[in-house]
Design goal:
single chain, 253 residues, 2 domains, 8-stranded antiparallel barrel, two-stranded antiparallel sheet, 10 strands, 51% strand
Amino acid sequence: MNLPGGWESVNRNATGEEHRRSMAVRKILLGLVAACLCAAVDSPASAQSIPSPYRFVDTRQEIALFVGTSSVSTGRFGFGPGGGMSAGARWGIDLSGPLGFEVATGVISGTRDIINPAKVVGDLKIGEADQRVATADARLRLTLTGDRTWHGFQPIFFTGGGIALGIGGDAPLDEQLASDDRFEFGTSFLGTVGTGLRYVLTDRLAVRGDAIFSLWKIGTPPGFTDAERGFANVERKEWTSGRHLSLSVSYRY
């Protein structure tokens, strides 16, 4: 059936209008689909966060209490303190970056052998006595991670110096020796070098384990330098080394 020319023109116009509308709708739908896809792809990436193993430590000072055990060489003749249990306190401050400063004081409680150099045969040891040595030293500290922790840990190295002082006086067995044969610890320079590992529990609390190597001098009683007793090449003072392990709990502020 043939339509009049005017109707064919109207029909073509209507068809073209519908086509344009259809294309517009398709473009809108494609735009919405693309936007949804982009959102679906970008959303996990934007929400995803990679946690850092490092965390800043805002506090700079700490006060700590420690307990530990010590093993100390007793010298050529064996009359020096042999170490024992230790306890004390420590204060520290972070200076700049990895550098820090700390002061530690403590007491080592153990025993020492009482040696009688006048005995000419057999074992020169006649007994044991309690021995306490008080220590105090200042240290320069290096924290490998600076003012941050790595998974909560901070490896530490330190070195310093101070004094060691014998406390407690003579033992009853010392009275059996001549005055020149009695050992007295007295006061000695103390050198320390060590390493530690601190674990920061909270902003205020931390625990730390230390392994320390120390040096101090012990004096030789005059009776041990008597050549007539068979002693030769005896030094008046002798360096002895110590190894110390300790665990501390600290409050940071």
